[in-house]
Amino acid sequence: MLQRLKEIDMLDLFLWVFRTVILVVVVWGTIATIIENPYPTQTWMETIVAGIAQGSLYALIAIGYTLVYGVLFMINFAHGEFFMSGIMTATIFLAGPMSASGYLDRHPYLGLLWITLVTMVVSTAIAVLTERVAYRPLRYAPRLVPLITAIGASFFWQNYFRGLFGSEVKPFPQIAPFAGKITLGSIVVLKTHLVVIIAAILMLIGLYFFVMKTKTGKAIRAVAENKDVAALMGIDVDRAISSTFALGASMAGIAGVLYALVFRQIHFFMGFIPGIKAFTAAVLGGIGSIPGAALGGLFLGMFESVGPGLFLEGLGIPAPHQLKDVIAFTMLVLVLIFRPQGILGERLAEEKA
Amino acid sequence: MPMLEVENIHAYYGNIQALRGISLTVEEGEIVTLIGANGAGKTTTLRAISRLVPLREGTIKYRGDDLAQFKPHELVYHGIAMVPEGRGIFAKLTVAENLDMGAYSRTDTEGIQEDLERIFGLFPRLKERRNQVAGTLSGGEQQMLATARALMARPQLLLMDEPSMGLAPILVESIFQTIQDINAEGTTILLVEQNATMALQVAHRGYVLQTGEIVLADSAAKLQQNEMVQKAYLGIE
Ligand SMILES: Nc1ncnc2c1ncn2[C@@H]1O[C@H](COP(=O)(O)OP(=O)(O)O)[C@@H](O)[C@H]1O
Ligand SMILES: [Mg+2]
């Protein structure tokens, strides 16, 4: 008994020290930065807008993790590849040729619309196919099995697209109306950032409406709660699960287009880091919760963007912006330890098996 | 031809045999009850009819059609609905959304609206709470919701798994009254119950299930008089 008490104490002590150290670093760094004041207000504003844009991308991708987790209690690690596959295909077959022929300059909006449509169709098709072939047969297998399969599917699609389109970085063309910056009151922001933020907000609202109000959306929520009972209602559970993957993947597809607008570089490996970050965002917001995914994404994007300058600069750490991934993953670890249910969600591992 | 004809069904969970050759029939318009102790196989029988548990042997026919050809989600389109054990309401959906899901198989918007009004008449509490998340309802209200939701499918055959479980005595009375009302409106009912006293009062016929086998089958009145039933299930010495 005493032994056990001691162990708990040691663990609590360790966690307490861990939490305190991080808190001290953050507070100390922030104070030091504020005193030093290395950047003008304008820079902070731009950093915040960039953070919101980055966070919007994470939010759109995180939706897919959260939706699939909601119905299957599975972390779909191939989701980053759904994000990559659509925009990769659209870049090779549409954006590249349209740019070369000058079509994209003459009809930038229509061109972007085509690119978006093809991206969504491909991302969705890849997702539905992956679910059908790789996940559905394992529906009743122990939870670890589909998880490993998802990692396998991720490798498969990465290498498939590398084999198909090569491993070099492909440029995504500049779309004229979105080039350059725009002045909003006293701050200057990249037009692409503005596009990303507005598009993400519209998509998230649309998605929320779809899930809450449409028959398919309600069926997805019913399936998420109880598959057998959902079937008794006449809901085709397999179809609802397919729809869930399609919905998440179409959001990832849109995120792919927005990513391409901002970064203008397409690569077979491009889904990996955003995928993991979006997963972090989903966990942060509470996996299974749609508003949680949106909030988590936004939070992570902001943290990553503002964090290095705010907490690390003041500590005299050189090139703090290179450490944004460290911040993101430290945050994942912290959330998993101290609040595994995330901001809005339920507990990750327990409950529902 | 009976509406439902279950013939010699065997079902397993892994290596454990839960049903050992169950046969029963339900005629159109009847209330038939299946009584038996905990673990006798009542739920498994209903789940087998609903195609949620695979059969190792035997057939289930509904209006002459073998149900083996249908997937679970197709049954409700043929008029079979179920109130599952433990209610199985969608706790995160609102009361109204739960009822929507009950009518998922239907496309006749006007008919659905009519049935909704009728059901709100039957369960006024649900009307008051229609916009409330179902998980916040009391046990009795959840049971009403599970029943109401099944009725929204406008079923011809309703399978009910222990609708009185965990309810206060006054609510038990009202649930059984509802069962009789539903039946009077033309719905055939196969009622699984541990509360044999009440079940045999409302049912026309009954089957007694013991460790996966039917040990008695008779009219409800006769079963009430049966010494073994009285002793084992009705608490009469
Ligand atoms: N999911 C399951 N896995 C393994 N055994 C089960 C499962 N469900 C029921 N059983 C077993 O099958 C038998 C019948 O159970 P059930 O049909 O639930 O009985 P009842 O509804 O009459 O209480 C019991 O012995 C029970 O332990
Ligand atoms: Mg039971």
Averaged pLDDT of chain A: 86
Our measurement of the CA-to-CA distance between the termini of chain A, rounded to an integer number of angstroms, reads: 31 Å
- The tally of strands of chain A reads 4
Distance between the termini of chain B: 39 Å
Main sheet record of chain B:
6 strands, mixed
Beta percentage of chain B is: 25-35%
Strand content of chain A: under 5%
Brief overview, please?
The complex is a heterodimer of chains A (353) and B (237). With 353 residues, chain A is mainly α.
What does this structure look like?
Chain A has 353 residues and is mainly alpha-helical. Helices cover 74% and strands 3% of the residues of chain A. In chain A, the strands form 2 sheets. A two-stranded antiparallel sheet of chain A has the order 1-4. Chain A has a two-stranded antiparallel ribbon with strand order 2-3. Chain B has 9 helices and 10 strands. With 237 residues, chain B is of the alpha/beta class. Chain B is globular. The model of chain B has no long low-confidence stretch (mean pLDDT 92). In chain B, the strands form 2 sheets. Chain B has a 6-stranded mixed β-sheet with strand order 6-7-8-3-9-10, sandwiched between helices. A 4-stranded antiparallel β-sheet of chain B has the order 2-1-4-5, covered by helices on one side. The chains are: A mainly alpha (353), B alpha/beta (237). Chain A binds chain B through residues 215, 218-219, 221-222, 225-226, 228-237, and chain B through 50, 52, 71-77, 81-82, 84, 88, 90-93, 97, 100-102, 104-105, 149, 153. Bound molecules: adenosine-5'-diphosphate and magnesium ion. Adenosine-5'-diphosphate binds at residues 13, 16, 18, 36, 38-44 of chain B.
